[in-house]
Amino acid sequence: MTTERAAIRPFLTKVSEGTLMVDLESFRQKALELGAGTAEIIPATQITVDERVRLKCIVPRCLRAGETPNCPPYTPELDVIRKAFAKFAWAILLKTHVEPLEAYTPRSGKSKAEQRQTLLFHQKTGEIVYQIERLAYKHGYHLAMGFGGGSCKDYLCHGLICQFLDSGRCRFPHRARPAMEAMGIDVFDLIGKVGWEAYPLLDELSQVPCAISVGLVLVY
């Protein structure tokens, strides 16, 4: 018990560059332990916020646009996001492999259970992002914040009406968060910078090599 307490730093503790990198590597390793297929430590300067990404939420219109407080038009203005992100230096970028892809293909399920399964495409990524953000916070990085993929209405509430917009009470206040794309982050540009690949999940899925879900935790 004493050892665990000694490892916890007070907030605002100045950390050396070496300590920071050790912490970042421990967060990266934890993401892998939690089920990420790959995770990378990246400079926050690699993150691009683009107006076109935000527009893609409504052109063509995403089925979840306006249905949760974590989707446009409720998400912060892009200038606010850019200014906030510019204050970070390092982040953890992670991906999970979605398989078997057929189980998560929209409108593919026959039973209700199979149909609900299609909503969970980003569930594992969302859980890992939550855990890594929480771990960073415990290490004293009080401004750490994470973003997953897809709508929290799908992978947390399984498509039920958003309770927050209905009554002001979120079912999962600590786990619900905006998707990277809802924040205007160009996810494809970002994963390209670390050498990852993503494919269009349209039409003949048997020809798609893999499907991934991507998450990001800004640490420091």
Structural class: alpha+beta
- Estimate the strand proportion: 5-15%
Strand/helix succession? HHEHHEHHEHHHE
Tell the overall outline: globular
Mean pLDDT: 93
Strand line-up of the largest beta sheet: 1-2-4-3
The DSSP helix count reads 9
Measured between the Cα atoms of the first and last residue, the distance is 27 Å
Instruction: Specify the biggest β-sheet.
Output: 4 strands, antiparallel
Oligomer: single chain
Report the count of strand segments.
Answer: 4
Q: Any idea how many domains?
A: 1
Contiguous low-pLDDT stretches (5 residues minimum) are: 1-6
What would you say about this model in short?
The chain has 9 helices and 4 strands. With 220 residues, it is an alpha+beta fold.
Protein architecture, described:
The protein is an alpha+beta fold. The protein has one domain. It is 34% helix and 11% strand. The protein is built from nine helices and four strands; from the N terminus they run ααβααβααβαααβ. A four-stranded antiparallel β-sheet has the order 1-2-4-3, with helices on one face. The chain is globular and about 55 Å long.
Q: How do the helices and strands line up, and which of them pair or pack?
A:
Elements: H1 2-7, H2 17-33, E1 38-43, H3 51-55, H4 78-85, E2 90-97, H5 112-117, H6 123-138, E3 145-147, H7 152-155, H8 163-167, H9 187-193, E4 212-218
Antiparallel strand pairs: 1-2, 2-4, 3-4
Helix pairs in contact: 2-6
